[in-house]
Amino acid sequence: MATQLVASRSMVRNAARALDSSHPDTVQLCSMAKLFATDNCFEVVNQSLQMHGGYGYLKDYPVEQFLRDIRVNQILEGTNQVMQMLIARSILNK
Asked: How far is CA 69 from CA 20, 45, 73, in A?
């Protein structure tokens, strides 16, 4: 799980650097970072929820909030399916 989080952070930071430097592939890199990070984080939270068992659904544990937050992040700023289309379009236009 830690590897997935570190890899996600790395992609997001790389996309942020590309955005700051006006890199020509900014849309592609940002779309890839959002898709990769939200999907990986959902897997990590889902595994954490599994480890907590039924307690993971209780508001007493932060896993419950993380699950709701990551699900919203998969939808906000364009669904992950839209990100896949942006990535494909960017690759095919090269």
From this structure: 26, 10, 6
CA 1 – CA 52 distance, rounded (Å): 15
Binned at pLDDT 50, 70 and 90, residue 20 comes out as: very high
Give the pTM: 0.84
Amino acid letter, 47: Q
Mean pLDDT, range 12-37, rounded to an integer: 95
Report whether 64 contacts 56 (CB < 8 A).
Answer: yes
Q: What is the per-residue DSSP string for 35-59? A: HHHHHHHHHHHHHHHHHHGGGGGST
Helix axes 2-20, 26-52, angle to 10 degrees: 160
State the Cα–Cα distance between residues 67 and 77, nearest whole angstrom. 18
Question: Catalytic residues, which ones?
Answer: 77
